[in-house]
Amino acid sequence: MMEVVLIAIAATLGNLLIGWDSSTIAGGVTYIKQEFDLEKDPTLEGLIVSMSFITGTVVTIFSGTISDMVGRRPMLITSSVMFIISGLVMLWSPNVIIILLSRIISGVAIALAVTFNPLYISEIAPPDIRGQLNTLTQFACSGGMFLAYILVFSMSLLPSPSWRVMLSIISIPSVAYFLLAVFYLPESPRWLVSKGRIHEAEKVLQRLRRVEDVSGYT
Asked: Which GO molecular function, any one, fits this protein according to its record (predicted)?
């Protein structure tokens, strides 16, 4: 059972990144506004903040169909890669257009994480602790927000706060998320069964349940 808990915790790192991203932009936009003189253009300022959520709304429409074809784990890996790329693009951003591009990329990452992390946990967890493990997603998101606010506040005390660094630090925990998704998280056994890959599903369940005979497990 401990293996399931550890895998669920590892998966919720994606939710931590959601909270992190949503909170750092709230602080970073203050400095973006100053550098690009956006005080007189509140629409553009609002677009910078909301672009990831606009993108995420669109992505969630068709992401479920893609996940049913390729699996849950590839979606988590893709989410981690998008978080890494969005942070690196933000570090390089020379203008508002590139900032918006970074926010679009992070929107893809957020959409995949917020959609598939709870689904993934539900599909790997046994019924008796499924609800408890799914509360980890919101806890991780709140934790990410808390850490991000500490970061933003700490950097705001510097003589010349860099919003590029502030918004790109997310790439560091995103690399950890990527490594966990690639090397530690198994594919959802339920998805494997839905594709007729019964032997692979049994192997995953044996790892998750720590028993050889998994015929009676869900």
From this structure: transmembrane transporter activity
Q: Please say if the pLDDT value at position 29 is more than 90.
A: yes
Secondary structure tally for the chain: helices H, strands E: 10, 0
Q: How many domains does the chain have?
A: 2
Confidence band for 218, pLDDT divided at 50, 70 and 90? low
Is 70 found in the same domain as 45? yes
Q: Do 62 and 108 contact (CB within 8 A), yes or no?
A: no
Could you tell me what percentage of the chain is helix, strand and coil, using 3-state DSSP and rounding each to the nearest 5?
80, 0, 20
Read off the pLDDT of each residue in 88-115 and give the average, rounded to a whole number. 97
The answer on 56 and 156 residing in a single domain is yes
Residue-wise pLDDT tens digits, 118-134: 999 999 999 999 999 99
**pLDDT tens readout for residues 158-194:** 999 999 999 999 999 999 999 999 999 999 999 999 9
For 113, 194, 196, the CA distances from 211, given in Å and listed in that order, are 30, 22, 21
State which residues form the domain around 35. 2-185
* CATH number for the domain harbouring residue 37: 1.20.1250.20
